[in-house]
Amino acid sequence: MRRVAVGWLALAASAAACRTSPGAMPRDGADAVVAPREEAADGGGDVADAAPIACEEGRVAEAPLPGVSAEQRTAAYWIERTRAWADPDEVLLPAERIADHDRALQSPVEGRVLGRADLLAPIDAAALRAEVNGRIASLRGSLERGEFVDARGRPFGERELAAFATRGGSWELRVELRAALEPLEVRCGPTRAGYYTAPPDEAFDRNVCSGVRPQEPVQVLADWDAELWLVRTATVVGWLPREAALSPPVPERWREALAAGPRARVTPGIRLVSNDGASLEVGARTTFAAAPGEDGAVLFADRAGFHAGRPEDGSPVEPLSGRPLTRRAVIEEAFLRLDERYAWGGRGGGLDCSGFVQEVLGAFDLVLPRHSGHQARAGTFSIGLEGVADAAVRRRLIEEAARRGVVLLQFPGHVMLYLGETADGVPMAIHAFHEFVEPCGGKEVDGAPREVLRRVDRVDVSTLDLGAGTSRGSFLERVTRVTVFGGEAGEALAGLAEYRPAAPAAMPRRETCDDTLDVALFRSPRVPRAGHRLRVMATSVRPLEPVELVLFGPDGTRYTPAVHRLGGPPWAWWVELDDPAAGEWAAVLGDGTRVEACETFRVARHAPRPAPREAGAPPWHSPLAWERDTEALYAAFVEQLFREPVGEEATWPSLQVLLSDPARNLLHDHLGLGEDEKLRLVPDCADLPYFLRAYFAWKLRLPFAFRRCTRGRDGAPPICPAAPYSNLDPDGSRAAALAAGAAAGTGAGGEVPPAGESGQGMEEEEAGTVGGNAAEPPKDDVEAFAEFLARVARSVHSATARTVPGTDASDLYPVALERAALAPGTVFADPYGHVLVVAAWIPQPADGYGMLLGAEAQPDGTVGRRRFWRGSFLFDPDTRSVGAGFKAWRPAVVDRATGLVVTPGNAELTGSADHPAYSVEQYRGSAETFYDRMEALIQPRPLAPARALEAVLDALEEAVVRRVVSVDNGERWVREHPGATIAMPEGYELFETEGPWEDYATPSRDMRLLIAIDAALGFPDAVGRAPERYGLPEGEEAEAAMAALRAGLEEGLAQRRFSYVGSDGARRELTLRDVVDRRAAFEVAYNPNDCIEVRWGAPEGSAEAAACGRRAPEEQRLRMEEYREWFRARKRPPR
Length: 1135
Prior knowledge:
With 1135 residues, the protein is α+β, with helices and mostly antiparallel strands. Helix content is 24%, strand content 20%. β27 and β28 form a beta hairpin.
């Protein structure tokens, strides 16, 4: 059996009742025993021992409370209202998930176990003694400092403090399991005496840690002294008087049933009778342990012992264990306790706020901790509201949480059960609380608004606006954490959700250990080796949290390395071990008994010897297929490769730098050939998506296909051959031979369109930089891959990704603007030649903006990330010449009949289960429609206008800072090539060419910058066109917001600064306002032959322009003026 430390002592010092001081809000966690005065308060409004309050103080607030109608105090009203946002009968947690939830709470959260104590497990006596002594020492310190007084308002003297002496040595444990026979009060400290905050109110004894309900199990731990026992319940440790009404010890045969068995409820007032003649009249809110092996019977205790009994009138016993959690059932349970008496710490059988929540959710076998602050961490997930000042944002977050499950609202010292919004949009909650404060008109002598304290002292329904306009604020303003019991967080809360720990995942039987395409497990390297890093990855196409990814070694040892989480959707988790032992291993993804995926694999003692490469063999064979699991892993691979902390600018010298980093590359050295140290992959923007996809396919032995396409021209979009090249047919020779054989009637494999079909004008690019030597046959698999990738680089270009949406002959196809269709790895092609790869979705935070990040490569090989917005992801729905937008990879499929790689057409992909559906949604409507739809995906909740403006300014600033780097690169080239002039292309080739102009001129970047400036200047008007997207009503409020945005825009442009180094070596500082004012100059500022002052639009005759020492040739400047109209119109010319 396992030995457990008693981790509930701090709870005992903090589990009292729902009443908080405005001057010293309670602290959570370990501070409980350090500052018990603050921590002991647990959720019921505000104390009367603060500064005196004027008006008619202390009057009882009659029901219904302000703003609440009689109807709104009924369960029926709220069950019906729930239908407005959710199904009241939706099963949020089935019984088996509840059991796993309870097991999960046994895992420490921030160093504290939140769940029930295992009253059957052996006790770690040393840990118990250490914690008890720590508690006593802390309490004594508080008493000595005068933080508490006795019932008469006097400080504790030496005589009273004598009870708070720590005990050295080893005091004897005496462990007996009993049951309470009447309501009891567990004391926080080893004394019967109460202690209070001054002035004392005997209703609020800070030495009451928790009430104990009749028939609740109580474990006697030790004879403390002649008067007290040291005891614990499932949620608290403390002291009871020896004369407390406890049963005799439970018989051995019923110990497990009482301590950990299913619970049941009997109608209050009914009498239980047993076969041995014992009887008990059932009190309100009493639950019983189900009698094992006796249907319809419960265990009850009296002073004589324990009995198995049934209702005397034959009425049924209501099982509580096994009940699913639904909104309807929770509301009904909560309203069963309406008007129950409020009592600090549950004194005399009353309810405090956390006791109310504990009872309501305990009716479903959810065992919550005693303290409200700990309950806030005990849900499926929770979100923090600290720092969220906007009341509208707070309400939206709470409303979204209510769509996910049952919601608790917590602030220091208090917890409430959220009911929802009324038909008039007023948010309400039901809770047990003592009092609240409300304005009562006029002002105090010091000028403060007059306010009055109202006593409630019951379980009741209140609005969240209660307390608004007072010094303490409304409940809504004070909420610090929203806790959800139910499903996963969803896209709207994904960036905020803090999930509970997973319950330890169980190892299934070997015959049932398996994964699926929906939830799959992978490992790397391909052949794991003892003593070398092992990485295990799990993917899922549906949300699964909370889960853990755990490994079981050959000897059964359970390994729980740190879990790294990615994506959503799809989702991924990965772990690694540095030194696995040889033998049979298993990996499990799950939460307790919920096993989502399982796989067994062997770790070899030695690395296998590489097989010699066969002459004429393809770059790699492809025994595996692109399906849901491999597509999900590809998304995870891309996201991890480009992962960086949110808000940090990220650029790298080349793709190879990322691939060579084991912390980034999930498939680093996957083949065991040291392959990532031998490659040199430096793609440009058009190559980047192909290099990533081919690299991944090579590592996992998946098929890969590509085409050579025309570049297209105005009115003539790019055209690609029907049949692709592939890793199985790199040069198209096999496809050509099969096609020739079919044409000659040989029947050699059937009709296969040749790779060059429709290929008039096919263009072959210059070879990219990939390493390898094409002059000789590759000597190993690494060289073979490098040569293949060089062929790909010579074949693809920016137009390859811009094929029109209706064609089947393309490597990529358009998808719907849906979150699941735009996973990392998806390609974005703009209308003008730039290509990006979706790198990550950054979920929207509580009071800020989310982001979609794209990875891009530059002509010089550098790789970076840029956020999605109008100034960086350019889009045009016109498909007459190009097909821009987001596109997924056509899955490469091996035709087993011919041995060639083929790709499915649009019709096949429309209903695919393994790949995003083909869709032309992007091209319906205008560019505005496209950006609005994308904004809704990136910001699933309305974004406050000020935050949205911040995002716009951030993006504009990023564009300017990136331009600083590009212009500096051009300056460096000029310095390294004194006297040289870079040739300027003509016409459309200004934007797409090769050589130094492509590397150092910035026409494309400056076009995007001009578009970005327009978007920033037009943002206030954009808010006015769609105020609902920013949480604004139409009318005067929207007009006021637009005016504030215009002012904020001007302020932001003036405050944000950057600098460049001038021709004279001096650093010059500019603002974004300068950039905006110089936008006309940026229409002709892209030529690297001009000095840097010209490139930054320095006004003629200014001190800044005086440092300029060179200009572009006159002929180039004349052509730039000729081309200015393109930039003024913000549109490239046709080809």
